[in-house]
Specification:
cytoplasm; EC 6.3.3.1; PurM-like_C_dom; 25% strand; PurM-like_C_sf; globular; Phosphoribosylformylglycinamidine cyclo-ligase
Length: 382
């Protein structure tokens, strides 16, 4: 009889418990104790009740002051970037990626984030690791002005390995109905402004990890082009644009027309989603320099540029479409806030796509189920 069979028989003889099935309730309680101060730091007087309730309560009285408040909501995860965090045993930054993927998806319509919840599924609850993840989420929520009102940690032994986990979250925000940003506001002559990403952010890691494995590179490898180890570069947190976009919306008012979060699908596809039919945004690659990590992925994996551009952000994390007369002021305002920004293109009226256009990887019309406008990428990156 094998040792594992002996242990199984002994466990059955003593009675099977939740703990023997692989779920440690006490570890979950310890994780909550370690994280609760960080969570409370995100909560103002609008949040009722304490950490650990069945549901988070948020006082919506402030919405009374809106003429016609619209609630905006989004949910997302971090994808396979969590595999890098697990391999390096560094978990306090992944929360920034989660908040970036969720909260910055609602700010693009002009919505101010109100609150967020998170969900962590793991093979085994290690209190310190769970607390690190949540502390990161809480720190990012503080930075974006979002209350973290609740969450859940679920132990899934047998489904996930002991050191594996995945994270997801959902956020809700509010915007006045007559201040919603989107395709309806965009006009011919508008200017496209790019905002620098902090790196890969949280998309395309299945491609990136495949390339790295193919090249046989270790995460601890020092890479001169990056000025740090490969793992440090890959774990760089997603830049948060929430405060920048809300500031632009307040300052530019009706002259801020649309905002696009450059996530899965890349720059062209995500920009096309916020353009109306009949308009084309011509984006000039020569207006920005491709950060080293993107060139490295392309080189190591011999990845074709069209595949790179529809998978990775290529150094552009957020895009704003503004009236021409405020473009310079918008760029200056973003730079003053510490976010590198530049004019990258212009919106013009477009005719019907030709057969050449529809076969051109540099031309994207609509995306992700949105039958929107067209984006044309021209020239080469600086």
């Amino acid at each position: 009889m094998s040792a594992s069979q002996q242990r199984t028989d002994a466990s059955a003889a003593q009675g099977i418990t939740y703990a023997s099935a692989g779920v440690d309730v006490e570890a979950g309680d310890r994780a909550v104790e370690l994280m609760k101060d960080a969570v409370r730091a995100t909560q103002g007087p609008q949040v009722l009740g304490g950490v650990g309730g069945f549901a988070g309560l948020f006082d919506a009285s402030a919405l009374i002051g809106y003429r016609k408040p619209l609630l905006a909501t989004s949910t997302d995860g971090v994808g396979t970037k969590v595999a890098i965090a697990q391999a390096l045993d560094i978990h306090h930054t992944i929360g920034f990626d989660l908040v970036g993927m969720v909260v910055d998806d609602i700010v693009v319509v002009g919505a101010k984030p109100l609150f967020m919840t998170d969900y962590i599924a793991c093979g085994r609850v290690v209190p310190e690791r769970i607390a690190d993840i949540v502390r990161g989420i809480a720190a990012a929520c503080e930075q974006t002005g979002t209350a973290l009102v609740g969450g859940e940690t679920a132990e899934h032994p047998g489904l996930l390995a002991a050191n594996e986990y995945d994270v997801a979250g959902a956020a809700t925000g509010v915007v006045e109905a007559d201040r919603v940003l989107g395709p309806e506001r965009v006009r011919a002559g508008d200017v496209v402004i790019g905002m620098e990403s902090s790196g890969l952010h949280s998309n395309g890691y299945s491609l990136v990890r495949r390339v790295i494995n193919h090249a046989g590179w270790a995460l601890e490898r020092q890479v001169s082009e990056l000025g740090r180890t490969l793992g440090e570069e890959l774990l760089e947190p997603t830049r948060l644009y929430t405060a920048d976009i809300l500031d632009l919306a307040e300052a530019l008012d009706a002259d801020l027309h649309a905002v696009s979060h450059v996530t899965g699908g890349g720059l062209a596809a995500n920009l096309a989603r916020v353009l109306p039919q009949g308009l084309t945004a011509t984006v000039d690659r020569a207006t920005w320099q491709l950060p080293p990590v993107f060139a490295l992925v392309a080189q190591l994996g011999n990845v074709p540029r069209p595949d790179l551009e529809r998978t990775l952000n290529q150094g552009v994390g957020m895009v704003a479409v503004v009236a021409d007369e405020v473009a310079d002021a918008a760029v200056a305002r973003l730079r003053a806030r510490g976010t590198a920004a530049w004019v990258m293109g212009q919106v013009d009226a477009s005719g019907p796509l030709t057969a050449v256009d529809t076969g051109d990887p540099d031309v994207v019309q609509g995306a992700k189920g949105v039958d929107g406008g067209t984006v044309r990428l021209v020239n080469e990156n600086a």
